[in-house]
Design goal:
Length: 234
């Protein structure tokens, strides 16, 4: 039996959610997704061929700053922007990339995951899901904004997250609902970018619908396979 694709796994989450969650709550989430799409955010995503922003972000494992220039000196870079550890779609995607790490490395590339979560929350994610790649903190989704994928949850939809006990301001900035800032309500669209060593974007995909994610096989296809010796059996 062929392995289940990432999107098939995500679609199962959606099916289970629709079976378990009250229709009125589902309707709020559906409307929020439609509203986000209608902002035109997908038209602002940095495209293939653009220059990627450089960055320095804190790594959850080492608590040290990681520089994009240092990463790119080692090989092409696959960047996954995710919303947070509270999102089952994000976790499923990260676990898929966990299993693909040997293939990413075989192709000479590096993989990093970036979220607006605090480093503490990123560390929880790292430990709980045995992730082998760096998890970097992007406070206020400032880097995500440079990639064109950041948005702030509108006040009308913040109550929805409170009603399902997801405290985004705490996850992102250690704040309560009462002292939350606009930045603490900011999230990235789930996205994947492949950055070449000359800092050019070779793959760019993000969706306003958080239930849809880039196909890892399509991402891997943009990474050159190492050249084998002339007498290789391949």
């Amino acid at each position: 039996m062929p392995p289940i694709s990432l999107q098939d796994q995500l679609d199962r989450i959606t099916q289970n959610t629709r079976a378990l969650v009250q229709p009125e709550r589902l309707a709020i989430s559906e409307q929020a997704t439609a509203d986000l799409f209608n902002t035109g955010i997908e038209d602002r995503i940095l495209p293939v061929g653009a220059q990627a922003p450089s960055f320095t972000l804190e790594d959850a494992r080492t608590r040290k700053p990681v520089h994009s220039t240092d990463l790119l000196a080692l090989g092409p870079l696959v960047i996954n922007f995710f919303r947070g550890r509270w999102c089952p779609y994000c976790i499923t995607e990260l676990e898929s990339w966990r299993e693909l790490q040997p293939e990413v490395r075989r192709r000479g590339a590096l993989f990093v995951a970036i979220s607006p979560q605090t480093t503490r929350q990123n560390d929880f994610t790292l430990q709980q899901h045995a992730l082998p790649f760096p998890l970097l903190a992007d406070p206020g989704a400032q880097l995500a904004a440079q990639f064109g994928i950041a948005y702030t949850i509108p006040p009308a939809h913040r109550a929805y997250f409170q009603s399902i006990l997801i405290n985004i301001p705490f996850n992102n900035a250690g704040l309560s609902y009462h002292n939350a800032t606009e930045a603490s309500w900011t999230l990235p669209l789930p996205a994947v970018f492949v950055i070449c060593q000359d800092n050019t974007i070779a793959f760019s995909e993000a969706h306003a619908d958080f239930r849809v994610r880039p196909d890892p096989e399509s991402v891997l296809a943009t990474l050159a396979v190492p050249i084998h010796p002339p007498h290789s059996s391949r």
